[in-house]
Amino acid sequence: MSEIVFDRPAERWGEALPIGNGMLGAMVFGRTTTERIQVNEDSLWCGGRRERVNPAALARLDDVRALLRQGRGADAEEEAASSLYATPPEQARYQTLGDVWVGLAPSDAPEPERYRRSLDLDRAVGTTSYVLDGHQVTCEWFSSAPAHVTVLHVSSDAPMALTVSLSRDGAPCDVSSLDGAGLALTGVAAEEGEQDGMAFALATRLVTEAGVARAQGGRIEAEGVREASVLITGRTAFRSADPIAWCRSTLDDAACVPYARLLSDHVADHRALFSACSLELDGTDDAVSGETTATRLSRLREGKADPDLLRTYFDYGRYLLVSSSREGSLPANLQGIWNEDLDPAWNSRFTLNINEEMNYWVAEATGLGSLQLPLLDLLCRMDERGRDVAESMYGARGACCHHNTDIWADCAPVDRWMPATIWPMGGVWLCLHLLSHLEYAHDEALSRRYYPVLRDFVLFTIDYLVRDSSGHWTTGPSTSPENSYVGPDGHATSLCMGPTMDQELLRDLYEGFLAVSEELGVDDDVVRGASMRLVGLRPLQVGSHGQVMEWVEDLEEVEPGHRHLSPLFALFPADQVRYGRDDELVEASRVTLDRRLANGGGATGWSRAWVACCQARLHDAEAAYEATCGLLAGSAMDDLLNADNLLVDDPVFQIDGNLGGARAILEMLVQDQGDLLRILPALPSELASGRLSGVRTRRGCVLDMAWEAGSLTRLSVTATREASFSLELPGVEAKEVRLPVGSALAFDGATV
Predict the structure, then answer these.
(1) pTM for the full model?
(2) Domains identified in the chain and CATH numbers
(3) What are the C-alpha distances in Å from 425 to residues 67, 350, 501, 509?
(4) pLDDT tens digit sequence for 76-116
(5) Cβ neighbours of residue 235 under 8 Å, at least 6 residues apart?
């Protein structure tokens, strides 16, 4: 069982524990006098739909390109800042819904004894237990997708007096009684001067087994209670015309269900997703595994191995994705679904130049492909809005999105920061997730459903690309996210023509699009245009340091240790540079990575996760392991949530490090490169024994395996459809495998 364990209540938000059902999330603090449950609803965003494309953009586009071709980067950036930045520059921002406060004991109550707070990842149920004044108190908490409510269930062996209240600091709202033992907090999230905002409601009801509960004076009160359930839900006008009516109906329905049934339905629903894949890593002493998570993190920071903590981190990543991205919800944002602020860092948006994509790196391979559907739904809405951006900014057909989007699928440039703002490839990268989903699903009807969206983003690139001086098709104006180079004039410059990452993204886009088009029997001008541009893309180049060149010319980075590994996209998550096949580029990728790290790169959580994935692809097992341990040691808060910076007093949570770290652990054990399946390609000595089951492959197989003392002892690869691929076992040359549907390949440690 994977658990996150504390021996004390949370003092700050970064020590609370997260629960969620896709739309509704909560951070539970485990306090013993007044419990705090901070609640989010994924569609509560402040700032309405806006048309933000700069009307001067298209007329000045060719001027910007001409300046870049002349090597006048500083002048090009000045021109772009005046014409290509959007007006206004900001998109909507995600906000907290509010807090539910549950009074469990008087403020002067004695200190509890035998306190334990835990989150069971397998059941998605948190538990707080303690002895207070000689009496046992237990609280269970979870967020139910079937019932659309978050539940705090309190039980005690002595009668208790309970109170429940609601608040939302820093914003106007109203609290009123709701049907007897219920409360509702309502308001509108709106920018200053905005006529219309997002109406919302946070509602709660106290259901008691015995005793009397009533709402009065802005709170619910109950006396003589030994067992009670606090039911919580929330809604916004994004989904319901009348949020409070929806909340009332939802609470009515949940209140009619016995607690035991609410719990069992929730656990079954969660396990149907979470249990699709399972990992066990041996080598942690029982005494260590019984310690609190904070203690185990401290040991890891001292350099002591704890394989089971890495297993917990892997499980946690999958748990967080299940809890923050469900069919019908919005995608997991920069904070998944958990945010306590009205003005969060980076607006807690969907950031498309690495972070949003990293959130889903672990989905398909670990049986959570359906959790990508919210991302694909957002892409479909981006298609509609992206058409206007493509036409208005670039004079192009199809659809385009830049490096951020929001609840409204806004596709215009965001902010006024040159290293990131003018990068029209965000929709392209999301299309690669669509292509991945189609490859795993292998469903013609699904391909036909999404093909028009894919075609639109391809069509934009066909019109957007221009020929460079060598005759290659190139993007521009663009950037290499979010890096800068020293231009010919000696100035730090970001804007450029044809950054390497753009070429890598387009190579995967065109190859995937052409494959789907062939499967569907489509052959038209767009298909032919994509084919022509694919063969005309510039190949990867090696620079003077032996590195993969990040730009068309061999330029020096302003920050050699930059956190983004953009030119290494071809190594991971793509498969354009493969160990054992592309020796020169593999070595150049290694040099690129080493230079980044030698100059301070990989300092943030998500960057370290990307580093670990790349090192695994380079078959550098120990380096991948050290980077993964470094991710936990340097970026994990005591509740294992990834922090952007642990050194500040109040670290900012960012979920991508959790989810990217889960993928890094998987990459050490299995690398599925489509036509090549590699088993234990980067197994570090510290993870010498373990078991892994339920891994899905691109060619339609399910993989189970075990290893002991560094050697593979068992492998089963079962075909869910007819499958053909090469299989590479440790120390054995790859062999061709063909499996009819329903058949399996088995390895018993000696023979296949």
Answers:
(1) 0.97
(2) 3-45+93-275 (2.70.98.50), 53-87+349-359+366-601 (1.50.10.10), 685-747 (2.60.40.1180)
(3) 21, 14, 10, 11
(4) 999 999 999 999 999 999 999 999 999 999 989 999 999 99
(5) 41, 200, 201, 243, 244, 246, 247, 250
